[in-house]
Design brief:
With about 150 residues, the chain is an all-alpha fold. It is built from 6 helices and no strands. It starts with a helix and ends in a 5-residue tail after the last helix.
């Protein structure tokens, strides 16, 4: 009987460690996504920005200024980073964030991650964690959301 309790304690310890690692990885991935979204937003809002990425690329390749070429490069790198992170980490992302990235709703994705919300409705933003929520609680809630497709209470 004692061995059973020791085994359960070890298992709980390992599960707690794995939950913390999952949350840490998720936080790091989300930070990289947020940085890329900010870079993309900044480049798109710059004074030299064309209304469409294709127009900016055409301007740069047709003898546009060095600033325009750099801007197109920044946009391209941000989009490539977002695509790579999404492809690699899709299963580990919050379902709503994955939805926004899949549909290239970058303003909503940035608002979800705590960036400027602008006219993004509150329903598209991540619910704030309750004070005192532990990493393990968050990981369990995330796992429940992924398993069921909707948050559990």
């Amino acid at each position: 009987m004692r061995q059973s309790h020791e085994g359960e304690a070890r298992l709980q310890s390992h599960l707690g460690f794995l939950a913390k690692e999952l949350v840490t990885t998720e936080i790091m991935t989300e930070a990289l996504i947020k940085d890329s979204l900010i870079s993309l937003t900044t480049a798109m809002a710059a004074p030299n920005s064309a209304a469409a990425g294709a127009a900016a690329a055409a301007t740069a390749s047709a003898g546009g200024t060095a600033a325009q070429a750099a801007q197109v490069g920044q946009i391209t790198r941000a989009l490539e980073t977002l695509d790579t992170l999404f492809a690699r980490e899709r299963r580990h992302l919050h379902p709503q964030l994955a939805h926004f990235l899949q549909h290239r709703s970058y303003a909503k994705a940035l608002a979800f991650l705590g960036g400027p919300a602008g006219d993004i409705p509150p329903s598209a933003r991540r619910p704030q964690r309750q004070a005192g929520a532990r990493a393990g609680d968050t990981a369990a809630a995330t796992a429940n959301t992924r398993a069921s497709g909707s948050p559990t209470s």
